[in-house]
Amino acid sequence: MKPAAKLVGQISYPKLGPQRKEMEAVIAWYHGRELDYTTGFMRYGVRYQNGRLIVPLTGTYNIYSFLSLTENDDSPDVPFDTSRNATLVKHAMYKYNVKLGKDVELVSSIQTHRESTNRNFNAFSSQISTLVQLEAGDEISVKISDILLISYPGDNFFGLHMI
Question: What does pTM read for this prediction?
Answer without folding.
Answer: 0.85
